[in-house]
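Morning run. Coffee first, then this:
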Amino acid sequence: MSKEIVRRSLFGPVCQRGPGQPIATSLHQCPFSSTTVIRAPNDDQPRSSSSPPPAKQRSNPTSDLARVLGKSTEPKKKATKPAAKPSTPNLGALANIIQTQIRDQKISAASAASRVPYAPPSLRTHTLLDYDNSVENPLNRLTPDLTPPHHLHVYATKHNTHITLTRPNRDPIISVSAGNIKFRKAARGTYDAAYQLAAWTMKTMQERGLMAEILELEVILRGFGVGREAVTKALLGTEGRNLRGSVVRVTDATRLKFGGTRSPKPRRL
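And here it is:
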């Protein structure tokens, strides 16, 4: 019995065709193998019918829900903070803080001054704020001058020196000049006369007991005579040691002429 052996280069195994068996059957079924070779229409490689189909990859329900909602399932990366830069001091903010503290201190001092009784300058605790006489100082605007000071007027001319002590309402207490202490004619306009006049005035104030009455004193200078400097030296010297602690203000009240009357003719020698 003749056997026709057909070799298939595509399927690999050798199949035998019996007598009267069609070639097509022998090509699709090999007697030496129990498996049937199946070929897909567009598949170049054969696949066995007994082998199970490839397992379908199971989908992750979490990823499917995230895909529907349009969210990413990738784990979030932990954000790293940038390195902190060295902070520079804010001078503007620091200045505002200092100004606020100064303003609060002034307002609290003003409110406290309106509640406490008056104290003489020797019993006060002075700070730098007490010497701020500007209009911007709220301490000067909030506290009115409830106790105006006494006044010591010094009128120094070329020929004489006049000293007048007045109360806060401008009533005179002592009013003297160089002629009242036995200086005559041209001697009244000398430096020594003005110095002795200031010393005599301060001694008289102490003898009359006016030092306890005078809590604050304002010195008002007028004119440019030699007595101006003499009275200032006496007030800063030994004669004024009991009075200069009460001085709160020094004022220059020299009259200034804007045009004015005709000046006297210069003296000819």
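The chain is about 25% helix and 15% strand. Good start to the day.
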